[in-house]
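Figure 3 (text version): structure tokens given as input.
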């Protein structure tokens, strides 16, 4: 009987420690993700600042935007890409409509309460 109780206690302790370790790992992961997002936001701000201040960087950024637009327009003419773009546009419309319906229902529910 003592062996059974002891083994149950050991098992419970192992689960408790595993749960605590998982919670610690989850917190560490969350903290690292927050830190990454903070540094990424700083990096974006620094890049924007550099593009505003540095004429060469600003020129490159404009050229990249123009080239990106040209590439996008060219690729959108491809027969295998056109249907995908149409499907995406259709899905975007459906998503907007559903969001609008959800918002309308929320407003209706808050007005009736």
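Below: residues designed for each position.
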């Amino acid at each position: 009987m003592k062996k059974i109780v002891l083994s149950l206690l050991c098992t419970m302790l192992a689960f408790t420690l595993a749960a605590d370790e998982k919670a610690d790992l989850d917190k560490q992961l969350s903290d690292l993700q927050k830190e990454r997002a903070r540094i990424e936001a700083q990096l974006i701000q620094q890049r924007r600042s550099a593009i505003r201040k540095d004429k060469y960087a600003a020129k490159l950024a404009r050229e990249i935007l123009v080239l990106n637009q040209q590439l996008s327009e060219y690729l959108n003419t491809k027969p295998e890409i056109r249907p995908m773009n149409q499907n995406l546009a259709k899905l975007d419309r459906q998503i907007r409509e559903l969001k609008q319906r959800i918002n309308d229902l929320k407003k209706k529910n808050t007005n009736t309460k």
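The radius of gyration is 27 Å.
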